[in-house]
Design goal:
Blueprint lengths: L8 H40 L2 H9 L3 H16 L2 H22 L7 H29 L5 H29 L2 H19 L25 H14 L1 H22 L1 H9 L4 H26 L4 H17 L3 H4 L7 H33 L2 H29 L7 H20 L3
Helix pairs in contact: 1-2, 1-5, 1-6, 1-7, 3-5, 3-8, 3-15, 4-5, 4-7, 5-15, 6-11, 6-14, 8-15, 9-12, 9-14, 9-15, 9-16, 11-14, 12-14, 12-16
Length: 424
């Protein structure tokens, strides 16, 4: 992608520095959270021997994110982005330092782990929304694709590296030493983020308050403004329902039927199941590395809707091997089939997420971006557990091959409707 030659050299240099500091700060912060979440889950399992306590720890990594997102969105728009981003990493660093000193005199208890997990995810949610809301003022408009792709690459890489390093930490490193290392990592991340120029590109209508503390008004009023902005934009509402259909099809047609078919019906070994799942984040990484060049050649909206339709088709194919279970298909063929589906889904999801975030950043003034993103994410996250529950309830009541087709057909129909509506 060509550099924006309209920018003077100092601005271009500052923009490059912002990109590098963004990648460093977010990378250290997200990876640290990912490693801790995985390692502490294993620690709980070892400490209690209870699958319920392990599941509770995982649940506490998700629920605070859903509950606090609307409030966090208002905070992200009220306060200067630098204060939020740097502050949350400092607080996370202090949280881990506190845990480190607590473990000097006594071991970690289940209640301390639960509380610290909730706090970590609250602070990380605030950090994430603050960083997302800051993106349009960190770089010029033609670099939004790049910074969004970088962010997705960091998230995808952390999804792979986090559990790997978390397993190593759990097996080889004393938990107390790990707490100290994580504390120092968060503090280092906060230090690098201090040098980001958060107001480098305050150049759009509505951006003027993006990094300044606005006039104080009730939180409820701030949230209402965000909601009105969300529902008042036809484009954002359409994008929201694309995101809803994507999460629905993944939850209903992939996340429940896929593992059930692979493990229970086809009876593949756990190593094969792990290999298949590992291809999904690899696809995400490949997608984020290639999405920028693709977005330079076609409409963002057309790309994400087309990819949503493609994911729906892939989801509909999840159940096909169940039809041939009596034919004793070779394990290698089944693994290759599902690995290909998961890899292509990973690539396609990157081709949905990056254009969607870029369109939202271009459509919504930066001063309102945190609120609108938090509303979208909170509502979307409600869809996934409902889809999981509905899919799980239908297994045993409907033929397995039918369930993925139902979810995929709904998502595909909506995508085709939008493409037709756009005149494509």
């Amino acid at each position: 992608m060509e550099e924006n030659m309209a920018l003077p050299m100092p601005a271009r240099n500052s923009e490059r520095l912002n990109l590098w500091l963004y990648a460093t700060g977010k990378g250290v912060s997200i990876l640290g959270s990912s490693i801790y979440s995985f390692a502490i889950g294993l620690y709980v399992l070892k400490l209690t021997g209870s699958a319920l306590n392990y599941a509770t720890t995982l649940m506490l990594s998700v629920i605070p994110m859903v509950l606090i997102s609307p409030l966090a969105g208002v905070i992200a728009d009220r306060l200067p982005k630098k204060r939020i981003v740097v502050g949350m990493d400092v607080i996370n660093g202090l949280l881990f330092l506190t845990l480190y000193f607590i473990t000097a005199t006594s071991p970690l208890t289940l209640s301390i782990i639960y509380v610290s997990t909730v706090l970590l995810n609250i602070f990380t949610t605030l950090f994430g929304l603050g960083m997302e809301a800051a993106k349009p003022t960190l770089v010029s408009p033609d670099k939004l694709i790049r910074i969004n792709a970088m962010g997705k690459l960091i998230d995808s890489s952390s999804a792979i590296i986090g559990p790997m390093l978390g397993g190593i930490v759990f097996a080889l490193i004393d938990i107390r030493l790990f707490l100290l290392f994580n504390a120092l990592s968060f503090l280092f991340s906060a230090f690098t983020e201090c040098f980001i120029k958060y107001d480098l590109f305050l150049n759009r209508v509505g951006d003027e308050g993006a990094n300044q503390t606005p006039n104080h008004q009730p939180f409820k009023q701030d949230f209402i403004i965000g909601w009105q902005t969300f529902k008042g934009s036809r484009l954002i509402v359409e994008l929201f329902f694309v995101f809803v259909s994507l999460n629905f099809v993944l939850g209903f047609s992939v996340n429940v039927p896929g593992p059930y078919i692979i493990n229970t019906v086809l009876k593949l070994p756990s190593t094969a199941f792990g290999f298949i799942n590992g291809l999904f984040p690899v696809g995400l990484i490949i997608g984020t590395l290639t999405v920028e060049s693709l977005m330079n050649r076609m409409s963002y909206k057309k790309l994400l809707i087309s990819m949503n339709a493609f994911i729906a088709i892939l989801a509909m194919l999840i159940g096909l091997p169940a039809l041939a279970v009596s034919a004793s298909l070779p394990v290698v063929a089944i693994v290759a089939y599902y690995s290909t589906l998961h890899f292509l889904m990973g690539v396609a999801i990157a081709y949905v997420d990056v254009p969607m975030m870029t369109l939202m950043q271009k459509e919504i003034p930066s001063a309102l971006l945190g609120r609108v993103i938090s509303i979208v994410m909170s509502l979307v996250k409600i869809v996934l557990p409902l889809a999981l529950l509905a899919s799980g309830a239908l297994i045993g009541r409907l033929p397995l091959v039918v369930i993925p087709i139902i979810g995929g057909s709904i998502s595909l129909a909506y995508s085709l409707y939008l493409l037709k509506k756009a005149g494509q």
